[in-house]
Amino acid sequence: MEKAQVNDSELISLYIRGNEKAFAKLVQRHKSKLYTTIYLIVKDQYVAEDLMQDTFIKAVDTIKSGKYNEEGKFLPWIIRIAHNLAIDYFRKDKRYPSVVFEDGSSVFNTLEFAEDSVESLQIRQETHEHLRELIQRLPEQQRQVLIMRHYEEMSFQEIADATGVSINTALGRMRYALINLRKQLSKRAPSYDKNIYPR
Amino acid sequence: MTKTFTQDDVVRYVYEETSPEENLLIEDAMMSEPELMTFFLEALELRALMNKIERQPRISTVQTILNYSKHHPANPPARLRQS
C-alpha cells in the first residue's frame, strides 16, 4: 500500500510549475474513477474513452492557462467536467446507446484476484459485469443519483441542488436504486460476491 | 419525542452523511428493527460491490492525454522546465 503519498493539491502545484510527472501521477490516480463514471453515464466504452480524453484536455487547458482555482479539490472538479461533457454528448446526439457487450478480460485488477481460482474469478467477473448492466438499466433518475453520489462523490444536498429536487427526493431515488439493484441481483445465483469484504 | 429512522436515514448513514450523534441513534434503531438492519447490510454490500466495478481506460488513451499535456503550447521552453 502506498504510504505518505503526495496529495492532489501538491501534485497540481508541481504540475503548474511544469512537472509533467506530477500530472502523470494525477492521471494514474484518478483515471479509473473518472472513466468508470463516464462509462456508466454513456454506456459505451469508445465514447467513454473519447470523453475521458476531452475531460483531461479541458483540465490541462484550464490549469496551463492559470485559470485553475487551487482552493477546490481536483477530483470533484474534474469529475464535474466529465459529467458535463457526458451530458452534452447526449444533448448533441440525442441518442442512448444500448448495453455494450464486452469481453471483460481487461476490466478487473488482476493482481487483486491473483490468488483466486479461475472459476471463482469467472463468477466474480460475471457478477461485476451483471451489476454494471443493472446500473445501466436503472430508471434514469435513479441511475443519475446513484452515479452522482457513488462515483462522483457529491453529497445528497449537492445532488438535490444540481438536479432541482429536494434532498428527500434525492435520497428516495437513491434508496429505490439500491432496492432495485438488490432485487435484480438476488434473481441471479450466486447472487452476491461472497468475497467483497477484506478477509 | 423519539425520532423514527427510515431507510433514507440509513442511506445517509451508509454514505457517511450523518453526524456522530445521529450515528448512535441510527445504530440503536437498526439493532431494534431487523428490517432496517437488513436494508443497511444490503446497502453496505452494494456499496462495496459498486466499488469493485471500476474500469480501466486503454493505455493508449492515457498516453494520448499525457502527450497532450507534454506538448501543450503553454509549456515553458524545455530548458526552463522543472523536472
TrEMBL record, chain A:
Record-linked CDD domains: Sigma70_r4
Annotated ranges, domain RNA polymerase sigma-70 region: 26-95
Gene3D superfamilies registered for this protein in UniProt: 1.10.1740.10, Winged helix-like DNA-binding domain superfamily/Winged helix DNA-binding domain
InterPro entries to which the protein is assigned, alphabetical: RNA_pol_sigma-70-like, RNA_pol_sigma-70_dom, RNA_pol_sigma70_r2, RNA_pol_sigma70_r4_t2, RNA_pol_sigma_r2, RNA_pol_sigma_r3/r4-like, WH-like_DNA-bd_sf
Transmembrane annotation, as ranges: none
UniProtKB keywords: Sigma factor, Transcription, Transcription regulation
Keyword Transcription regulation annotated: yes
Superkingdom assignment: Bacteria
Protein's UniProt keywords contain Transcription regulation: yes
Domain RNA polymerase sigma factor 70 region 4 type: from-to ranges: 131-169
PANTHER family tied to this protein: RNA POLYMERASE ECF-TYPE SIGMA FACTO (PTHR43133), RNA POLYMERASE SIGMA FACTOR (PTHR43133:SF51)
Family of this protein: Belongs to the sigma-70 factor family. ECF subfamily.
Xref: NCBIfam families: sigma70-ECF
Protein name stated in the entry: RNA polymerase sigma-70 factor (ECF subfamily)
Record organism: Spirosoma utsteinense
Organism classification: Bacteria, Pseudomonadati, Bacteroidota, Cytophagia, Cytophagales
From TrEMBL, chain B:
Name of this protein: Uncharacterized protein
Source organism of the structure: Spirosoma utsteinense
Taxonomy of the source species: Bacteria, Pseudomonadati, Bacteroidota, Cytophagia, Cytophagales
